[in-house]
Backbone:
């Protein structure tokens, strides 16, 4: 530790001298060097930038999707309590729907109930990647076997 202090007291090192020289050169440069230039104006329409993904791999953005749903075959336990359908008492084989920052549960019989103890963050943590997109709610239900 004392060697470092003594070394600094002798004067700047070679690296410090080089850095000081670069800083001095930088301050001597005219201000317009390195400034962005305006693109040349032309009357020709510019070609559209190519899309990154081919059409068959594109998915709708979040604002284009009305909602998401996933199957949940096992019993759904929330806060240590098993969730059951309020109308028929079913407690497994749910469809979990996430729409407008709300979570809805749909049993096999088609009864739906809102689940206020779950939120979109829970849905995103527990859902996998989407395997398909559908135009209508009924198409999605058929796809998931309900």
Residues:
């Amino acid at each position: 530790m004392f060697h470092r202090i003594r070394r600094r007291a002798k004067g700047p090192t070679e690296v410090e001298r080089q850095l000081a020289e670069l800083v001095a050169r930088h301050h001597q440069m005219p201000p317009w060097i390195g400034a962005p230039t305006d693109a040349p104006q032309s009357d020709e329409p510019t070609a559209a930038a190519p899309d990154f993904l081919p059409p068959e791999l594109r998915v709708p953005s979040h604002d284009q999707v009305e909602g998401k749903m996933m199957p949940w075959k096992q019993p759904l336990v929330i806060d240590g309590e098993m969730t059951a359908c309020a109308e028929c008492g079913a407690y497994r084989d749910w469809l979990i729907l996430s729409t407008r920052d709300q979570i809805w549960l749909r049993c096999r019989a088609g009864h739906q109930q809102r689940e206020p103890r779950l939120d979109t963050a829970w849905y995103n943590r527990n859902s996998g990647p989407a395997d398909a997109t559908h135009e209508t709610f009924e198409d999605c239900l058929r796809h998931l076997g309900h």
The chain has a mean pLDDT of 82. The longest strand covers residues 94-99.
